[in-house]
């Protein structure tokens, strides 16, 4: 078989990252060199994946790559394989983009830290781990990559180990993360015992016809293992602690990249390996866990008083949307879920970077202590607002486009299946969206608007390198929001097509006809995937109209002497003082975690319960993981 | 035309901000009575504003005690131009029975330009409306002069 | 040539009808009628109907003061403009008098989100002023938005389902099919299953427009009009204008969702009167516009003026409780009924 050059690109894109990590260990003491190596590695990795867009996304090719050209012999795939279909490439691109921007940001963000060489080593190890995970073609390599990324992430969480709670957060992450990894390993072993292979394609051909107690338990173990990586409820407290302690550039990776690897694992498992997604009972697990994550985490976020912890909970809430949409098992659902996954990486990355900028300049992320920073950091504020509007689903930003598709697909699924449960999922999704908006209004008011505290009067804007990184995300947020059709046509729909054409995936790896020969009549036929569009939304036209309207208003306003505004000339002029009932205005900032007490008051029972539940003790969280594992295993044993 | 429209409207939509500068509450109650169904000052466009930023006419009641003086002046200064200052009752005008007290800093006209004085203790609602109507006329003139 | 013509036509939509000029006139007129009627209900003479116009022009002639503590002057000054522009653009997507300037560009779920933008502009403008009153107002405004969102979502979902199952599409979110269905089968409010949803929607209108008794966010007597506490001059006027336009938006949304298809009756009435041809078309369009505007007025009277005159301001947690229990409960009944095809 002739191999084109681009068939080597997947392994290159993983290799450059690990190679960069090792080179930085060697030359990391030289400051410019380590930045150059890190940037070069991430850029090369991104470049290799972009070069794959044409063959994989547009031509629908699936790249099956055997390391050392050890193709399967005697019907058993022994060699190490990479298999890149549109789904893998989609996640690979997300990861490479997030890693690239985070790396650009790190250069100036980490400039006050010690041991930055180690930071970059771990950073690239983490990036390489996730990249390897999504491009890998067999289960055992996936497990190895999970281990690499988990340990790199744990170490990076505690990188600023002088900060309060960093070690504790890392420890919690380590404990529950290792439980997850163990679940994945155990599941892998059980599958190997059953199928005598670890190759994804071969497993996908073998397992659906040989479902027995062992494979079902293995499925439950793997499912829970990847759920811990995605931090969905009940594994969410870890994410909050890890994000709160980790440097912002790492939070971007944890939320934008690590959670995606969990989602990727769940999709691979349930759509490919076990092919159970067409069962209502399986859809129930994903949709249920997704909607619970959506709602629980958004309410948890509403009660947070730390900027980064709040973002962390939102991160899981958005992952809930992704999981719910993916769990619908409709083409539109998967496509919109992936779209939202992509948008989540972009806007959540932007928000974490903005939080990092605030932390860098003020030294705190406590919502109760900050305020009025837009006066000193206008760029960060503007970029933060782009991220905040995106995540809250304000048109025309990307969060709206994807959330709107998610609602449509859930509601359409409800009508299609006649199951009223999905209607309530739609309602939860819509309400979660407005609660997301509420908590970002809270952040805007508590951090960027309102009054500037005295001690932050000398705060300055962040350096241009950090602004550049944030701007990259912001531009992507706007573009993907304005052109949803481009994104769906070229990125998410090819990926969704891949999800619904498992036979292609198997055959690309093991030769055409393999799936049919192993699975017989049960082989999944290549499906013509149709996308049902229910609603209407044309963001570009809307934006044009808004711009024309805004121009009209502005012209009228300026013509009508709107410009004759008066500003304070002397600082002590009482005319420009805030109205305080006649008193001299004093520093008074309305903000902090309890801003929306009118809402929380009505839900006080729920909030108190949640407060009690999230005890912060790692034993409890480990217990939750065990309980979740037991319940999921039990459920799966009953239904399959 | 636009300017004329604005000047015309300036006389038809006066919003009041009421400051109590140590009043005995008599005038305050009378001011509220002006907005009741019986006298209904809203038919002339009068409305009580919540914040001095929204107001056109500042109504001051009470003899302007030393405690309240800086607060009154600050609140008045926060009203955007063009604005009118109306004193209501005899107290802000002359000090009334409190004149000469150690704690009275009035009359108000010592500190700011007062456009209209409505005398009486307390003034009749009719008188208040009359005074306010006069103030709106002054407001309109101020705008036209601009 | 035709490009120029259609560009002019679109510009006409934006600037004249149903864009700025229409919104300005109709919104402020509704507001004036509302104030007059509240006065009448309280046995007062009340302000002239044109009072909101006077207020607006007066505010245009006042000074704009930017407080020294304002955290962002740009946001402070741009927020009212963005709010107004987004509201006017929103109006282009809602059928006004059975006429939609840009149908097929946004469905009702999009409308739900576009409705958030003016409120958000208000919130951010207030937040940027730095006033603590604005902070309290912001908190209450946001809770009111959360409160209204649930019943509104339920109403929209039930309308989408009811129309969708009746037309056989399964569900629909597009205005044009909702309007077409109503033109063919009569208004949705005539369906028994939709009545609770319509009532819930009527309850949402005062909350969305921030009028009594749901105006805790703009309580002028306790928190100095909250978000607007530091605004003066033209920006304040623009906020007041947006507030007036929102009454028009919400009432015309109600008319489009529940009272559509009334125009058909008028056409046949005109035909009965013996008119035909272009004259009949003109007359019926005019009559239709008048009737539908009167409907908006009636709705305003029912849900805003009357409620305003007889109620006192609720506390914010009571507002929330009311919407998430009473209004949502009603809308949920409709949703369940629509779900089972009633």
Secondary structure layout plus pairing:
The complex is a heterotrimer of chains A (640), B (146) and C (342).
Chain A: H1 9-27, H2 31-51, H3 53-58, E1 63-66, E2 81-84, H4 86-109, H5 116-135, H6 139-157, H7 166-195, H8 200-206, H9 213-230, H10 236-245, H11 248-273, H12 280-302, H13 307-327, H14 331-362, H15 378-391, H16 398-417, H17 421-448, H18 464-482, H19 484-499, H20 502-510, H21 514-519, H22 539-559, E3 565-566, H23 597-602, H24 604-613, H25 618-639
Antiparallel strand pairs in A: 1-2
Helix pairs in contact in A: 1-2, 1-5, 2-4, 2-5, 4-5, 4-11, 4-14, 4-18, 4-19, 5-6, 5-11, 6-7, 6-11, 7-9, 7-10, 7-25, 8-20, 9-11, 9-25, 10-11, 10-13, 11-13, 11-14, 12-13, 12-17, 13-14, 13-16, 13-17, 14-15, 14-16, 14-18, 14-19, 15-17, 15-18, 16-17, 16-18
Chain B: H1 2-10, E1 15-20, H2 26-34, E2 47-48, E3 57-61, H3 69-77, E4 84-88, H4 91-94, E5 116-118, H5 125-145
Parallel strand pairs in B: 1-2, 1-3, 3-4, 4-5
Helix pairs in contact in B: 1-5, 2-5
Chain C: H1 2-15, H2 20-41, H3 51-60, E1 64-65, H4 73-93, H5 108-114, H6 116-129, H7 132-167, H8 175-185, H9 195-209, H10 220-223, H11 234-258, H12 263-272, H13 277-310, H14 316-339
Explain this structure.
The complex is a heterotrimer of chains A (640), B (146) and C (342). Chain A is mainly alpha-helical and 640 residues long. Chain A has one domain (5-515, 531-547, 601-639). Chain A contains 25 helices and three strands. The two termini of chain A are 40 Å apart. Chain B has 146 residues and is an alpha/beta fold. Helices cover 36% and strands 14% of the residues of chain B. Chain B is built from five helices and five strands, in the order αβαββαβαβα. In chain C, helix 2 packs across helix 11 (234-258), helix 4 (73-93) packs parallel to helix 11 and helix 9 (195-209) runs antiparallel to helix 11. Chain C has one domain (18-339). The B-C interface holds B 5-10, 12-13, 15, 37, 40, 42-45, 48-51, 53-54, 56, 78, 80-82, 143 and C 35, 39, 42-48, 51, 53-58, 60-65, 133, 219-221, 223-225, 228-233, 236.
What is the count of DSSP helices of chain C, taking H or I runs of 4+ residues? 14
Write down the Rg of chain B: 15 Å
Structural class of chain B: alpha/beta
CATH architecture of chain B: 3-Layer(aba) Sandwich
**What form of chain C results from the Cα inertia axes?**
globular
Number of helices of chain B: 5
Strand arrangement across the biggest beta sheet of chain B: 2-1-3-4-5
Q: Which percent range fits the helix content of chain C?
A: over 70%
Query: What is the total tally of β strands of chain C?
Result: 1
Low-confidence stretches of chain B: none
Name the structural class of chain C: mainly alpha
Q: Please give the alpha-carbon distance between the first and last residues of chain B.
A: 15 Å
Tell me which protein chains meet in the greatest interface and how many residues each side has.
Answer: A-C, 83 and 91 residues
Mean pLDDT of chain B: 85
The fraction of residues in strands of chain C falls at under 5%
Number of strands of chain B: 5
Q: CATH class of chain B, anyone?
A: Alpha Beta
Ranges of chain C where pLDDT stays below 50 over 5 or more residues in a row are none
The CATH topology of chain B is given as Rossmann fold
Kindly provide the radius of gyration of chain C, computed on alpha-carbon positions and rounded to a whole number of angstroms: 20 Å
């Amino acid at each position: 078989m002739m191999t084109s050059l681009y068939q080597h690109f997947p392994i290159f894109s993983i290799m450059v990252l690990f190679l960069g990590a090792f080179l930085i260990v060697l030359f990391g003491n030289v400051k410019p060199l380590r930045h150059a190596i890190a940037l070069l590695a991430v850029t090369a990795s991104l470049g290799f994946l972009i070069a794959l867009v044409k063959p994989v996304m547009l031509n629908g090719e699936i790249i099956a790559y055997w390391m050392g050209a050890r193709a399967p012999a005697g019907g058993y795939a022994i060699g190490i394989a990479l298999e890149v279909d549109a789904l893998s490439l989609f996640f690979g691109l997300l990861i490479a983009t997030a890693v690239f921007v985070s790396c650009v940001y790190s250069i100036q963000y980490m400039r006050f830290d010690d041991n930055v060489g180690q930071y970059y080593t771990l950073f690239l190890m983490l990036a390489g781990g996730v990249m390897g995970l999504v491009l890998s073609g067999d289960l055992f390599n996936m497990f190895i990559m999970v281990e690499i990324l988990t340990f790199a992430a744990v170490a990076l969480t505690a990188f600023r180990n002088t900060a309060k709670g960093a070690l504790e957060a890392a420890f919690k992450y380590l404990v529950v993360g290792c439980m997850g990894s163990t679940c994945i390993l155990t599941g892998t072993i059980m599958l190997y015992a059953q199928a005598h292979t670890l190759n994804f394609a071969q497993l996908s051909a073998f397992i659906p016809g040989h479902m027995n107690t062992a494979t079902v338990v293995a499925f439950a173990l793997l499912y829970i293992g990847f759920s811990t990586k995605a931090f969905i409820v009940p594994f969410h407290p870890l994410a909050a602690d890890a994000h709160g302690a980790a440097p912002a550039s790492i939070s971007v990776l944890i939320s934008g990249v690590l959670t995606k690897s969990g989602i990727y694992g769940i999709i691979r498992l349930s759509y490919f390996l076990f092919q159970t997604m067409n069962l209502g009972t399986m859809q129930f697990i994903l949709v249920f866990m997704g909607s619970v994550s959506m709602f629980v985490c958004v309410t948890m976020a509403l009660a947070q008083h730390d900027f980064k912890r709040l973002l962390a909970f939102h991160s899981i809430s958005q992952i809930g949307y992704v999981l719910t949409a993916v769990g619908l098992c409709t083409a539109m659902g998967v496509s919109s879920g992936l779209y939202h996954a992509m948008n989540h990486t972009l806007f959540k990355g932007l928000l974490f970077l903005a939080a990092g900028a605030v932390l860098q300049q003020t030294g705190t992320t406590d919502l109760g202590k900050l305020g009025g920073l837009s006066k000193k950091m206008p760029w960060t504020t503007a970029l933060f607002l782009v991220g905040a509007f995106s995540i809250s689903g304000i048109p025309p930003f990307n969060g709206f486009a994807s959330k709107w598709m998610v609602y449509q697909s859930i509601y359409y699924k409800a009508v299609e299946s006649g199951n009223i449960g999905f209607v309530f999922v739609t309602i939860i999704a819509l309400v979660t969206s407005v609660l997301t908006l509420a908590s970002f209004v809270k952040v805007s008011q508590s951090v960027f608007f309102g009054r500037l505290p005295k001690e932050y009067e000398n705060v300055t804007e962040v350096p241009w390198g950090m602004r550049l990184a944030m701007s990259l995300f912001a531009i992507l947020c706007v573009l993907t929001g304005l052109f949803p059709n481009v994104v769906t046509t070229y990125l998410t729909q090819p990926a969704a097509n891949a999800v619904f054409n498992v036979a292609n995936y198997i055959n690309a790896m093991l030769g055409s006809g393999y799936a049919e020969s192993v699975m017989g009549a049960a082989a999944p036929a290549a499906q013509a995937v149709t996308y049902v569009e229910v609603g209407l939304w044309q963001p570009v036209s809307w934006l044009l109209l808004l711009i024309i309207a805004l121009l009209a208003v502005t012209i009228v306003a300026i013509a009508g002497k709107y410009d004759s505004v008066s500003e304070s000339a002397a600082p002590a002029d009482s005319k420009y003082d805030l109205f305080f009932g006649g008193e001299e205005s004093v520093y008074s900032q309305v903000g902090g975690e309890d801003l929306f007490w009118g809402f929380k008051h009505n839900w006080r029972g729920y909030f108190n319960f949640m407060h009690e539940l999230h005890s912060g003790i790692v034993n409890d969280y480990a217990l939750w993981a065990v309980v979740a594992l037991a319940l999921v295993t039990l459920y799966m044993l009953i239904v399959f | 035309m636009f300017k004329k429209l604005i000047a015309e409207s300036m006389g038809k939509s006066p919003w009041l901000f009421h400051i109590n500068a140590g009043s005995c509450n008599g005038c305050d109650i009378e001011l509220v009575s002006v907005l009741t169904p019986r006298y209904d000052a809203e038919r002339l466009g009068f409305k009580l504003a919540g914040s001095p930023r929204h107001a056109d006419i500042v109504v001051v009641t009470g003899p302007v005690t030393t405690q309240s003086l800086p607060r009154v002046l600050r609140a008045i200064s926060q009203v955007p131009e063009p604005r009118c200052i109306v004193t209501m009752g005899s107290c802000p005008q002359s000090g009334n029975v409190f004149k000469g007290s150690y704690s009275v800093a009035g009359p108000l006209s010592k500190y700011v330009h007062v456009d209209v004085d409505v005398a009486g203790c307390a003034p009749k609602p009719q008188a208040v409306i009359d005074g306010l109507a006069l103030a709106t006329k002054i407001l309109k003139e101020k705008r036209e002069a601009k | 040539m035709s490009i120029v013509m259609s560009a002019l036509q679109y510009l006409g939509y934006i600037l004249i009808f149903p864009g700025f000029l229409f919104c300005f006139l109709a919104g402020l007129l509704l507001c004036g009628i509302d104030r007059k009627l509240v006065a009448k209900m309280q046995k007062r003479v009340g302000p002239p109907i044109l009072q909101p116009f006077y207020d607006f022009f007066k505010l245009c002639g006042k000074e704009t003061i930017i407080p020294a503590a304002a955290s962002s002057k740009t946001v402070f000054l741009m927020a009212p403009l963005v709010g107004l522009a987004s509201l006017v653009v929103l109006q282009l997507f809602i059928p006004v008098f059975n006429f939609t300037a840009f149908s097929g560009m946004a469905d009702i779920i999009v409308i739900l989100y576009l409705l958030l933008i003016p409120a958000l502009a208000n919130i951010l403008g207030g937040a940027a002023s730095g006033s603590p009153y604005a902070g309290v107002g912001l908190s209450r405004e946001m809770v009111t938005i959360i409160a209204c969102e649930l019943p509104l979502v339920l109403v929209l979902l039930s309308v989408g389902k009811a129309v969708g199952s009746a037309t056989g599409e399964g569900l629909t979110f597009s205005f044009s099919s909702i309007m077409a269905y109503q033109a063919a089968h009569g208004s949705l409010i005539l369906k028994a299953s939709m009545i609770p949803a319509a009532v819930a929607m009527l309850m949402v209108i005062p909350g969305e427009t921030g009028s009594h008794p749901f105006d805790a966010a703009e309580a002028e007597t306790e928190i100095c009009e909250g978000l607007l506490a530091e605004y003066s001059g033209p920006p304040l006027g623009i906020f007041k204008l947006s507030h007036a336009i929102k009454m028009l938006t919400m009432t015309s949304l109600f008319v489009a969702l529940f009272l559509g298809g009334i125009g058909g009756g008028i056409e046949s009435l005109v035909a009965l009167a013996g008119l035909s041809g272009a004259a009949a078309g003109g007359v019926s369009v005019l009559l239709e516009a008048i009737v539908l505007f009167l409907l908006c007025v009636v709705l305003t009277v029912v849900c805003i003026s009357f409620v305003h005159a007889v109620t006192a301001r609720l506390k914010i947690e009571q507002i929330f409780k009311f919407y998430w229990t009473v209004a949502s409960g009603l809308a949920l009944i409709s949703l369940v009924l629509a779900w089972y095809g009633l």
